Amino acid sequence: MKDLGAVKKILGMEILRDRKNCYVFTISGCAINWKATLQNTVALSTTEAEYMVITEAFKETIWLKGLFRELSKNLQITTIFYNSQSAIFLTKDQMFHERTKHIDVRYHFVCEIIARGDIVVSKISTHDNHVDMMTKTLPSAKFEHYLDLVSVSC
Question: PANTHER family under this entry (predicted)?
Answer without folding.
Answer: GAG-POL-RELATED RETROTRANSPOSON, INTEGRASE CATALYTIC DOMAIN-CONTAINING PROTEIN
